[in-house]
Structures are given as structure tokens and as C-alpha cells.
Amino acid sequence: MNKNIITRNDKFSQQIIKGLKSRNMTGYYAADKEEAKKIALSLIPEGSSVTMGGAMSAHEIGLVDAVKTGNYNFIDRDEMEDKRAAMLAAYDADVFLTSTNAMTSDGILVNIDGNSNRVSAIAQGPKKVIFIVGMNKVCNDVDAAMKRARNTAAPINAQRFNLSTPCSVTGECADCKSPDTICCQFLITRYSRHADRIHVILVNDVLGF
Q: Where residue 23 sits, what CATH number does that domain have?
């Protein structure tokens, strides 16, 4: 990565972390994927029940493999026949791993979901929620974050899941009501009432969609 970009991200991340703190959330900055994984694992006590909600970023930094092979009770919905039971188990988990579709430079998280298991777990349930967020997902304000979520993240996810939506064809949001739409629930997390519940690890890399 270009040295100037690294320096910019180092400085910019401190502004974002300050914004998160003002919202009763805890922020961290990782210089690379390996450091991000180490920070995340330091937040997960051994023996914890851990699950996740479709976070490609957590896979990309090696966190999911580390949890699966470590001393944790990983609830893997991909390995369970009863998908609904796996999703419901997330609400009582010690730790929920996720990413965000977009976030603002002052610490607001913006997420869109189809089945809504991910956004509902972010809002309520798991004792701790750990976000893995590449610096590519940081936007100026909520409007820009919403546009990113709808016009970048959603079309890519629709394409990778082979969904029949206008955005999977055009690559941009059509505000559709397709049966396959993944833009069913919108969650804006602007404050955490519970201290030490939401942790956001900013990574000096391009992660996820």
C-alpha cells in the first residue's frame, strides 16, 4: 500500500475512534490484517460462544479460521442443518463477529440486511459485537454511508448470492421490491447504550464489499 495512504489512514483512524468513543463504542486501529486478527482474539476469552453474520472481512483477516480451530464454541450456521436454530443461537452468544456495510467518519455504523439476522443481532442479543472494518468503508456522513451500502455493498452481495434483483444486473440500487431483495431492514447504529458491547476494529486495508 502507498506510504501516503498508510499515513493518512493512521491519522484519520484516530478521528473515527474518537467518534466511536463519544457514542459509547470502542475503536481500535490495526496496521494490517494480522494485527487486526490479534486485536479481535484479545477481545474473545477462551471458552466463549462465538458466531457471526456473513462477515467476509472476518474471513479475510483469518479471524474465522482462528476461532474455528481455537478454544472457542463456534456456532457455525453453515454446518448446522437447522439454519433458524443457528441464527437464534446468535442472540445468546458471548461474541458476534460481523462487519459493516459502511460507517461515518464520526463513528455511525450503517447496515442493510435481507434475512435481518445480522442487523437484529447487532442491535440486541449477543453480549459483545466485534466489527472488522476496512478503511475503504468509511464515508463522510450518513447519507454517503447509506449510498455506499445500497450502491456498492448490496449489488455485490446480490451478485455473489445469484439473486434476481435489478442491482445484480445493473450494479446499482433501483429501490426495488423484488422477492429476492436484500435491502429489507436498514440499521443505523449511532450510540450503544451498553458500554463495552460494541468494538470496532479499523483495518488499514481494503476489506469486504
A: 3.40.50.10420
Could you tell me which of 83, 4, 70, 36 has the C-alpha nearest to residue 202?
36
- In sequence order, what are the beta bridge partners of 110? 102, 188
**Domain extent for 38:** 3-203
Residue 49's closest CA among 84, 7, 90? Answer: 90
Task: Report pLDDT digits (tens) over 146-200.
Answer: 999 999 999 999 999 999 999 999 999 999 999 999 999 999 999 999 999 999 9
Residue 189 lies in a domain: yes
Sign of CA dihedral 52, 102, 110, 149: negative
d(CA 57, CA 61): 6
